[in-house]
Amino acid sequence: MSKSADERGRIYLPKDVRERFGDRYRIVELPSHVALFPVDEDPLEGLQAAVGDAFGETEADDLKADAREAVSREVREEAEARSRDDGE
Q: Does the pLDDT value for residue 35 go beyond 70?
């Protein structure tokens, strides 16, 4: 499918595409192209649909806390690695 942007930069998606994927999209710029990814009305529900029962009965707040902890750990580890590299 090929579409052109109008004078204001808008791209209109056909009705069948909107019905299939919804009205909200995340625009991702990649080195060689731009991609549109549908955004679920309820992102957690979309995630659960994608991964099934992999998270079992885990609550959303627990998932958020785990994600924040993982990101904090990665940032700390990267900072420590940079400090070691700068000290050499």
A: yes
